[in-house]
Inverse folding.
């Protein structure tokens, strides 16, 4: 489109830099770029300062009418890419847009299919590593992707388009526009000196326009700076031109406005992206330099300093968004001019400014925009390397934000880097700082969340030792850190030890902190979880009920922690056999948390998994299958196939498939879950054994009782060894072994096994529990197959089925037809 034609921005417009009003020339490159851009990716590559970003910006403004989405992404770190795509998902009102782990795939899928818009352009600016950026390219035959990079190695990933220096006439035209007093000869001499490098030409033009200095004097200062630069380094030719051009301007700014010069130096340690003015103002106790300190505390002085920087063309000011932006080479040149002590001083100034902006509540979604604003500067300013405790606390909070926001790998990477760096620093100090201890504790949790259980255990043990040494075994921080050990024991399959530790911590928390302290309530919640795992459903229900009530009073009924305990309360009641109540309550919870946290949050999907289980147990097998397949697909999209939540939901769905007699699909999915549990948790872990039992039922019903028996007998032996003969899962496994034997014609053995299982079920679960009714029904069929009377026993069990589950429940109908009952295990997600 013509340059002077006004066209509104596309409906979806994100972070595109302002247009350069002094953009000059580049007609051939712009024309080639228009030809290159097509579905797929195009990479503008060339050396620093060559004008790649300016070309991308100019192309966008010349083609506004061609796009419905233009989205600009700073592509230095993957966390920044995820943050930008998450914002795009929110702008598109996509499901799951609140958290990175669901928002990013949702945004890429919307772009891939072209809904709601097919005409889109993604710009990945400063993308130096193709392997880092390529996973975020939508695989689509609609839309366009543009990359700017200094790296020429994009062949095979994108169509490469190299950008060179200005043609001489472009250089002289830009110089003449900004400095009309220049003769053609003077402009040519300056362009020659600057090697026609666009960034250097633009800087020289801005400086000449501001100062009004004769060309001869400018060239004298330039040559002086070139000599100084060459004496201190052996740079590339274009680096000489850039450095000399800018050093002239830096010196002039330092002389005219020291505060502006110091502000410019400070900004060199932020990320090379727009710096929000809010990050610079209002900080108390930041001492960098007298003039700068005064400007940082006075908005009027800060505004004057920013205007001075703008006049000298040393930064781009975006008044609409109230930001300023330094080019990467400007940042580099500024830092190269400083002594190392001065660099440390200014870098630390940025550290303190960022720490001052920390909301100190990284789990609250209302503060996530603040953490996203700070995120790129955390990396660029090397906050991890700072020894200041407030700054380190921001690093800990940033990792927590990334984890809760859904960037689990980003949180893990930051935590591992920080723990390693602070460990090196600690060896010099020989003491542990509170942020170091907290980050080490968080690291154990992040390792757990990505399934690195062995590494999590090692880190947890090391952290607990340090907490005990530094704070003592009874300190509340130590107490909270020991909760991770409870989870580690679960991953190791030692449910009894996990329950024992949880109960010990609960008693200690009550003594030290009181019953209503949030830490005490968090420990109580883990204690409920541990009791469920050990099969003590009555105790779990009672403690869950008490903890849910207290959390509601202390934290509020809509708090995520309160709802999590309510879910465990429903699970406990479900495992006690109250299926109708559990289904109704779980449905209410699922709807409520979906309204609060969105349809694709981890908490929402966990609730829908439990709802699918409760619905199946309540007898609505078709609806259960619909719920479980939907939750499974969304969990796999969010976390992948091997995540604990994904595995638990997939196991439940395999049972639902079996109930709908899709035995081949049920077997394939059940085997997949079993293999994953076996790989990640080990062959003797109770969750692996639960998956084996569920698979065994499918094998038997699909005509392979011999394989089912081999699997179930091995599982039964291991259940008895690890959980004991009276654990509900052990009882279920024993019932299924008896059914395997019955299917193989070994009726007497089946009858003996059922007799023992019935006695245990009545004693452990009670006479009316659905599991007890299942084994009583099977016992009746054993006796009849052996020619013995079982009428009274059968009449009793049929009556109990009708009272407990109702006449229309599939289990009741199956009992009325005198068909053996099968028992499943739905293990609690890790």
């Amino acid at each position: 489109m013509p340059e002077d034609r006004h066209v509104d921005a596309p409906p979806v417009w994100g972070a595109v830099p302002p247009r350069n009003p002094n953009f000059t020339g580049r007609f051939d490159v712009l024309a080639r770029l228009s030809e290159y851009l097509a579905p797929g990716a195009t990479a503008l590559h060339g050396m620093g300062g060559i004008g790649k970003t300016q070309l991308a910006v100019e192309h966008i403004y010349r083609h506004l009418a061609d796009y419905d989405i233009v989205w600009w992404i700073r592509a230095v770190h993957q966390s920044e890419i995820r943050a930008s795509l998450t914002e795009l998902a929110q702008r598109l009102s996509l499901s799951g847009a609140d958290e990175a782990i669901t928002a990013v795939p949702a945004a890429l899928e919307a772009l891939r299919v072209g809904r709601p818009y097919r005409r889109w352009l993604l710009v990945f600016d400063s993308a130096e590593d193709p392997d880092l950026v390529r996973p975020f390219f939508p695989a689509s035959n609609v839309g366009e992707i543009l990359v700017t990079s200094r790296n020429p190695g994009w062949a095979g990933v994108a169509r490469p388009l190299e950008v060179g220096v200005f043609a001489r006439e472009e250089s002289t035209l830009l110089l003449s526009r900004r400095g009309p007093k220049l003769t053609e000869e003077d402009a040519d001499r300056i362009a020659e000196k600057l090697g026609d490098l666009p960034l250097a030409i633009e800087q020289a033009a801005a400086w000449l326009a501001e100062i009004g200095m004769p060309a001869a004097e400018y060239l004298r200062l330039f040559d002086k700076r070139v000599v100084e630069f060459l004496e201190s380094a052996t740079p590339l030719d274009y680096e000489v031109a850039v450095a000399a051009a800018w050093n002239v301007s830096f010196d002039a700014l330092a002389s005219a406005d020291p505060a502006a010069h110091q502000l410019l130096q400070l900004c060199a340690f932020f990320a090379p992206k727009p710096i929000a003015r809010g990050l610079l103002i209002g900080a108390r106790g930041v001492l960098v330099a007298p003039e700068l300190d005064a400007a940082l505390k006075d908005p009027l002085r800060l505004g004057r300093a920013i205007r001075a920087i703008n006049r000298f063309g040393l930064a781009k000011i975006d008044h609409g968004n109230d930001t300023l932006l330094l080019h990467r080479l400007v940042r580099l040149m500024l830092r190269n001019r400083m002594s190392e002590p001065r660099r440390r001083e200014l870098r630390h100034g940025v550290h303190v400014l960022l720490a001052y902006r920390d909301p100190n509540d990284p789990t609250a979604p209302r503060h996530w925009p603040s953490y996203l604003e700070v995120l790129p500067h955390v990396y660029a300013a090397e906050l991890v390397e700072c020894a200041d405790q407030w700054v380190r606390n921001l690093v800990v909070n940033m990792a927590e934000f990334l984890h809760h926001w859904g960037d689990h790998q980003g949180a893990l990477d930051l935590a591992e880097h920080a723990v390693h760096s602070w460990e090196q620093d600690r060896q010099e100090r020989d003491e542990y700082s509170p942020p170091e201890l907290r980050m080490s504790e968080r690291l154990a949790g992040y390792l757990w969340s990505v399934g690195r259980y062995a590494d999590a255990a090692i880190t947890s043990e090391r952290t607990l030792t340090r907490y005990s040494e530094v704070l003592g075994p009874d300190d509340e921080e130590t107490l909270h850190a020991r909760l991770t050990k409870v989870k580690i024991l679960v991953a190791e399959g030692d449910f009894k030890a996990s329950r024992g530790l949880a109960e010990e911590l609960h008693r200690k928390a009550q003594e030290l902190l009181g019953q209503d302290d949030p830490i005490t309530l968090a420990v109580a919640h883990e204690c409920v979880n541990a009791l469920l795992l050990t099969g003590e459903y009555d105790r779990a229900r009672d403690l869950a009920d008490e903890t849910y009530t207290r959390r509601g009073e202390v934290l509020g009924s809509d708090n995520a922690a309160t709802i999590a305990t309510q879910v465990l309360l429903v699970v406990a009641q479900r495992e006690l056999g109250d299926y109708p109540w559990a289904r109704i309550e779980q449905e209410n919870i699922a709807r409520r948390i979906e309204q609060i946290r969105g349809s694709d949050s981890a908490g929402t999907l966990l609730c829908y998994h439990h709802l699918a289980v409760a619905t199946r147990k309540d007898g609505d097998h078709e609806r259960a299958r619909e719920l479980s397949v939907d939750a499974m697909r969304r969990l796999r999209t969010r976390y992948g196939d091997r995540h604990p939540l994904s595995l638990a939901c997939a196991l439940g769905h395999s049972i639902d498939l079996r109930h709908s007699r899709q035995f081949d699909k049920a077997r394939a999915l059940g085997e997949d879950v079993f293999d994953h549990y076996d790989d990640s948790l080990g062959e003797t872990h109770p969750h692996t054994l639960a998956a084996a039992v569920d698979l065994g039922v499918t094998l038997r019903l699909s005509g392979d009782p011999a394989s089912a028996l081999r699997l179930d007998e091995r599982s039964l032996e291991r259940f008895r060894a690890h959980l004991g003969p009276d654990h509900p899962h052990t009882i279920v496994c024993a019932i299924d072994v008896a059914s395997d034997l019955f299917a193989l014609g070994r009726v007497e053995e089946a009858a003996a096994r059922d007799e023992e299982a019935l006695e245990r079920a009545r004693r452990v679960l009670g006479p009316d529990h659905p599991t007890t009714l299942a084994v009583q029904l099977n016992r009746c069929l054993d006796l009849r197959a052996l020619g013995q009377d079982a009428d009274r026993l059968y009449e009793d069990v049929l009556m109990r089925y009708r009272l407990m589950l109702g006449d229309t429940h599939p289990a009741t109908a199956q009992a009325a037809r005198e068909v053996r009952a099968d028992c499943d295990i739905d293990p609690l997600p890790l």
